[in-house]
Specification:
By secondary structure, this protein is an all-beta fold. The protein is built from 2 helices and 33 strands.
Length: 539
């Protein structure tokens, strides 16, 4: 039971309202719109306030939408499963009808991987107002996950499909207490290209995880639209096998994931933004040759000094090209929105002219690098007619203003240093346990040789206690790739691009990219796999 006077927002001017969300009164969970059952029991955690941004101007020419966003991120301790959690809620709002939207996210628990869903909306007060409070103070509201007036209740959907877990998950309610208001934070627009990484696992196959990495900056695209307060993003991954478990010969699986758009994204500013899956826009395509049985063939054989016609069975492979639109539930969230730096680098500070501040991954203050996390649960029918449920929990992405080939310098040297964020999968018993790891990256580069010198080298250090490196090559000048090796038989690869051009022919400010590594040439023998993103700036 609650009440209050309807809040008067006044003239629209692109202001941002900040709300602190109280714990749910029943579950006493400190994470909004989430069940305590899906979170790590201990470790580092972060829950952002709820940000609600007005339309930019409110006049007839204003094409922006009022949006809101709240996100949480938590990591447990150790290397067993049940160590990571991401929860994202976003949508649109109005002063009369309150906040409406949804939540997405995922978690890795001791029992399974979960994908989050459910509708979020504010509850009207006695006078019909969704925001309450004195006009000279701060607005307040009551929000619920799966509350009255919503279509979809809150659900934590396990990868194994066991719906009994969902019976433990109830709706949550929170009081949104207005704490402060920022004047117009401005608009940010731009298109960024880059790299992403993550592990994909299928329901019913806990003994295998597939590494997802892209090899070109054109395959990961982030489009920020400050004119609409929205964003879109796309990721493309390709995996090829000579022969896979279904006896597919020279098979390739290409997955295209799409995020965002109106009603599916929220951009508060150039560093705080998030998006959900764009319904009906993702794609899975499988091509290759599959084993289709045997056919009888004949050959001539010399027997007792006579030519005899002998029958034999010859394998038959059938070509296939299957494309389908998966049913997806996913999220893409920026690092600042989810508090990634505070969780991943807890207690680490950097000295600046203004004093000690929280360490920021990759670059302390770079508007030309954007990064964060992503996840996706997809359901589709494969080329064999089988129903597939595929899940990626807590992948990583990084983008930047990729330098054009014409602006790249053709002489001089540079050293880049920064960080690595990624996921480690370790085979334990009959399953792969995933955990988050960080490390450092260093790259020496000669813009004249572009990989022809042994010094054109990328090194990833102290990532899950391992170090691996390799020479990079850049035939296209602006992007590079190469093989990685390390102690213990580690082998892998990396791809990246130069970002942040200060001008034609001048040394780029930074680099971004991804990597993929394992401790065996053959995935079937690997007991350690890792992938992730890296980035750095010129030092």
């Amino acid at each position: 039971m609650f009440g209050g006077k309807k809040y008067n927002f006044g003239e629209t001017s692109g202001k941002v309202y900040v709300f602190a969300l109280t714990s749910d009164v029943v579950q006493q969970s400190g994470i909004p719109f989430a069940s305590a059952n899906s979170m790590p029991n201990e470790g580092n955690g972060f829950a952002s306030p709820l940000f609600a941004k007005e339309q930019n101007t409110g006049d007839a020419e204003d094409g922006s939408r009022p949006v809101w966003l709240q996100a949480s991120f938590a990591l447990g301790t150790g290397e067993s499963s049940g160590q990571s959690f991401v929860n994202v809620a976003l949508g649109e709002w109005s002063s009369d009808n309150g906040l409406t939207g949804s939540r997405r996210g995922s978690s890795d628990t001791a029992s399974d991987n979960y994908s989050f869903s459910g509708d979020v909306r504010s509850v009207a007060g006695p006078d019909g107002g969704h925001f309450l409070g004195a006009s000279n103070g701060q607005p307040n509201a009551v929000l619920g996950l799966g509350t009255s007036g919503t279509t979809n209740p809150g659900r934590d959907n396990p990868l194994n499909g066991d719906t009994s877990y969902q019976n433990q998950i109830g709706s949550t309610h929170h009081i949104a207490v207005g704490t402060q208001t920022f004047d117009d934070v401005g608009t940010t627009s731009g298109t960024f290209h880059g790299y992403a990484a993550g592990f994909s696992q299928q329901a019913g196959d806990a003994s295998n995880v597939q590494s997802l990495v892209n090899g070109s900056a054109s395959e990961v695209v982030l489009r920020l639209s400050g004119n609409t307060n929205n964003l879109t993003a796309s990721m493309r991954f390709s995996r090829s096998w000579l022969v896979d478990s279904d006896q597919n010969l020279l098979s390739t699986k290409t997955t295209q994931y799409e995020f965002g758009g109106s009603g599916k994204s929220s951009m508060i500013d150039g560093n705080i933004f998030g998006a959900f899956e764009t319904s009906g826009s993702s794609n899975v395509r499988e091509t290759g040759y599959e084993f289709a049985g045997y056919e009888t063939k004949y050959r001539w054989k010399l027997q007792n000094w006579k030519l005899v016609k002998v029958a034999y069975d010859s394998p038959v492979f059938r070509k296939y090209d299957h494309s389908t639109t998966p049913d997806t539930t996913g999220y893409l969230i920026s690092a600042d929105a989810m508090g990634a730096n505070k969780v991943l680098f807890a207690g680490q500070t950097v000295q600046t002219p203004n004093g000690l501040v929280q360490k920021q991954a990759f670059c302390q203050d770079c508007d030309y690098i954007k990064w964060g996390a992503w996840g996706m649960r997809s359901n589709y029918t494969n080329h064999n007619g089988e129903q597939v449920t595929e899940d990626t929990h807590l992948g990583w992405w990084i983008t930047g203003n990729v330098v054009s080939a014409s602006d790249m310098p053709t002489r001089g040297t540079a050293h880049y240093a920064g960080d690595v964020v990624g996921t480690v999968a370790k085979f334990n018993g009959q399953t792969w346990n995933q955990s988050v790891a960080t490390g450092t990256m260093n790259m020496d580069w000669n813009f004249a040789t572009r990989g022809l010198s042994p010094k054109d080298k990328l090194t990833i250090s102290n990532f899950d206690g391992k170090t691996f490196s390799g020479r990079m090559f850049a035939p296209g000048k602006a992007s590079f790739a190469g093989a990685l090796t390390g102690n213990g038989g580690i082998q892998g690869s990396a791809a990246g691009s130069f970002v942040g051009s200060p001008g034609k022919g001048q040394t780029p400010r930074g680099v971004v990219g991804n990597f993929n590594a394992r401790n065996s040439v053959l995935d079937t023998n690997a007991t350690w796999k890792a992938n992730g993103i890296f980035g750095g700036t010129q030092r």
